[in-house]
UniProtKB/TrEMBL annotation:
Gene Ontology molecular function: DNA-binding transcription factor activity; transcription cis-regulatory region binding
Protein name: Periplasmic binding protein/LacI transcriptional regulator
Keywords on record: DNA-binding, Transcription, Transcription regulation
PROSITE patterns recorded: HTH_LACI_2
Pfam families from the UniProt entry: LacI, Peripla_BP_3
Domain (HTH lacI-type): residue spans on this chain: 5-58
Gene3D superfamilies (UniProt xref): 3.40.50.2300, lambda repressor-like DNA-binding domains (1.10.260.40)
Length: 337
């Protein structure tokens, strides 16, 4: 049985030397006519390059991994849509990992970089602990972290300022005359949950309002769990007139709960989320949300990783994407400013 076409048979079909075929298939500078003849012959013969052998020789796989908590979360899908074309233009494929925010799984992904199945990793962990930092330091391939890491961490980092984002939403509520502003957060042991909890407490006090624990509820960063948390909050504080949600999935759950409770949005209760996912603009009513620049963070992470792959000796870079408040009907009604 034939093993299929080789560079020898391609050379014979194209009428060029084996060396010329090798140069073309490895992307080295070659005369345009030779390139055309070699590629035409390879296509006619059905030649498929042995990428495994090539990666062993070059120590490059031309693959980059992206590890995220939940592949179904619209935030991460937005990032993927930005990361992939940047990498593709540079000749890399994107490999996706869904870790379910499991720390052990994330550490395993970092350690597996030693197996050289990818050339680099973009990771967005929800929890950052000492184990993560040690694994990042020991990683056998370049790593870019999306999300906050302790200052001084030797890793390329793309972050956002979610504390300012929360304050933007609270100031917006306050400007509309809302004074009983509830807050539904995700787990406090996560980076975003901790940051947004602190921002809410600080922001409420800066507005001259009393901090009321009865207006705060902890759930998870998913729609169903968020809806349950909003239900608990509404039963405990029926007089609230606004709800700040730690992400848009929680906020979408809030709209469902308030609708079932007969509370009008925004007339009775104004609602705002964070992340500005695509669903925010098409929800009913459309959802006011703090954009944390998910698309830009994904693009910047891919660019930082490519830069690191080409310049491994440079100092780590930290890039911060500022938040923006996207005002929609869930806080101001159908007529937006």
């Amino acid at each position: 049985m034939s093993d299929g076409p080789t560079i020898t048979t391609i050379a014979e079909r194209a009428g060029v030397s084996i060396a010329s075929v090798s140069r073309v298939l490895n992307g080295l500078p070659t005369r345009e006519d030779t390139v055309r003849r070699v590629l035409s012959a390879a296509d006619e013969l059905g030649y498929v390059p042995n990428s495994v052998a090539r990666s062993l020789k070059s120590r490059r796989t031309n693959q980059v991994a992206f590890a995220m908590a939940d592949i179904g979360n619209p935030v991460y899908l937005t990032m993927v849509r930005e990361i992939q074309p940047v990498l593709k233009a540079a000749g890399y494929r994107l490999v996706l990992h869904s870790t379910d925010a499991d720390v052990a799984e994330e550490i395993d992904v970092l350690r597996s970089l030693g197996e050289r199945y990818v050339d680099g990793l973009i990771m967005i962990p929800l929890r950052i602990g000492e184990a993560h930092l040690k694994a990042v330091e020991a990683a056998r391939a370049p790593v870019v972290i999306i999300g906050s890491v302790p200052d001084g961490t030797r890793v390329d980092n793309v972050r956002t300022d979610s504390r300012t984002g929360v304050r933007l939403a609270l100031e917006h509520f306050h400007s509309l005359g809302r004074r009983r502003i509830g807050f539904v957060n995700g787990p406090l042991d996560t980076v975003p949950g901790s940051a947004r909890s602190t921002a809410y407490a600080e922001g409420i006090r800066e507005l001259g309002l009393p901090y009321d624990e009865n207006l705060v509820e902890i759930g998870d960063f998913y729609r169903a769990e968020g809806a349950q948390a909003v239900s608990r909050l509404l039963s405990r504080a029926p007089d609230l007139d606004a709800v700040m949600c730690a992400n848009d999935l929680i906020a979408l759950g809030a709209l469902d709960v308030l609708r079932r409770a007969g509370r009008r949005v925004p007339e009775d209760v104004a609602v705002a989320g964070m992340d500005d996912i695509d669903l925010a603009a098409v929800a009913w009513p459309s959802l006011t949300s703090v954009s944390l620049g998910s698309a830009e963070r994904g693009r910047l992470a891919a660019e930082l990783l490519l830069d690191r792959l080409g310049n491994g000796d440079r100092d780590p870079k930290v890039v911060t994407v500022p938040p923006h408040l996207m005002i929609r009907a869930s806080t101001v009604g159908e007529e937006t400013p």
